[in-house]
TrEMBL record:
Pfam families for the chain: HTH_1, LysR_substrate
GO molecular function: DNA-binding transcription factor activity; sequence-specific DNA binding
Family, per entry: Belongs to the LysR transcriptional regulatory family.
Domain of life the protein comes from: Bacteria
Descriptive protein name: LysR family transcriptional regulator
GO biological process: DNA-templated transcription
Keyword Transcription: yes
Keyword annotations of the record: DNA-binding, Transcription, Transcription regulation
Domain HTH lysR-type as annotated: residue spans: 8-65
Keyword Transcription (UniProt): yes
InterPro entries: LysR-type_TF_proteobact-type (IPR058163), LysR_HTH_N (IPR000847), LysR_subst-bd (IPR005119), WH-like_DNA-bd_sf (IPR036388), WH_DNA-bd_sf (IPR036390)
Length: 298
């Protein structure tokens, strides 16, 4: 007689695995797209179900108990195996479909305008593009690859295809009241302006300032936005001066919707296509195509 499996709730196990891996209920909630309270409730139910504690408080953080460490190892192995199987099934049932994660701003402003050309140039490649905000989990769960901006050190198991150096610079609408006054002025003139900024790239303005020999503490920040996409839309609408990766605004600059009076500088990071496994010929083709698009600009 076959014995039925008696396991805790899958949602509870997912909440535990994410919390154990990320070391934080809040970060686990962000990854799972639920509230911290929902994660805490799942952890409480799981500990009640198992009849043992899995975490103890350690200062402001959490520490796994011995039981928690055992369950962490088991869930990590199980979810890794499940992820690998799902990836294989997706490839087998979707005629070569690859699931690619990328920042939502890149998806909206750079990838979508190029999809028709991508389909024409690589007709055998089928993509499912998944918007992603924040840091990527090194395991890239549910993804065949991630298109991102980063720099070494990389996770040891990643196959990293370098595509182009990251370049950023200030942009504003030529009809903005400050445009005529600032045109021809050195970069230091921006220290007197209120700058648009984004929570998703808080380091961008300070990084640019340091490369220009300016003290980041002199910068004045005005309206902030949660995501880079909204920041760039605000700049196009003439609401102020934003800091932007060159590929995401090149079309707007070419069309005159934005201007980049101070040009763009390299940050030391790279645009990369990163895969959790090596040897995928379809991803190699995609990386080559993306590299060509970045090189062509616009």
């Amino acid at each position: 007689m076959m014995t039925s499996r008696v396991l805790p709730s899958l949602n509870a196990l997912r909440a535990f695995e994410a919390t154990a891996r990320l070391g934080s209920v809040a970060r686990a909630a962000g990854e799972l797209h639920v509230t911290p309270g929902a994660v805490s409730r799942q952890l409480h139910l799981l500990q009640e179900d198992l009849g043992t504690g899995l975490f103890v408080r350690a200062g402001r953080g959490l520490r796994l108990t011995d039981a928690g460490e055992r369950l962490r190892d088991a869930t990590r192995t199980a979810f890794d195996q499940l992820q690998a199987t799902v990836r294989t099934l997706r490839r087998g049932t979707a005629s070569g479909t690859r699931v690619i994660g990328c920042p939502g701003s890149l998806l909206a402003r750079w990838m979508i305008p190029r999809l028709e050309r991508l389909h024409a140039d690589l007709p055998g490649l089928h993509l499912h593009l998944s918007p992603h905000d924040g840091e990527f989990d090194p395991a890239l769960p549910g993804l065949d690859a991630a298109l991102l901006i980063g720099a070494p050190p990389w996770p040891s198991h990643w196959r990293v295809h370098a595509l182009a150096p990251e370049r950023i610079g200030p942009v504003l609408n030529p009809r903005h009241p400050a445009f005529a006054r600032l045109s021809g002025q050195p970069a230091a003139a921006l220290a007197a302006e209120e700058l648009l900024h984004t929570a998703s790239r808080p380091q961008a303005w300070p990084q640019w300032a340091r490369r220009q020999g300016l003290d980041p503490a002199r910068l004045r920040f005005g309206t902030g936005f949660e995501h880079l996409y909204y920041l760039l839309e605000a700049a196009v609408a003439g609401l102020g001066i934003a800091i932007a990766p060159e590929p995401l605004v090149a079309a707007d600059v070419a069309a005159g919707r934005l201007a980049a009076p101070w040009g763009f500088i390299e940050t030391g990071a790279q645009w990369c296509l990163c895969a959790p496994v090596a040897g995928d010929a379809q991803l190699e083709r995609l990386a080559g195509w993306l590299r060509g698009e970045f090189a062509a600009g616009g």
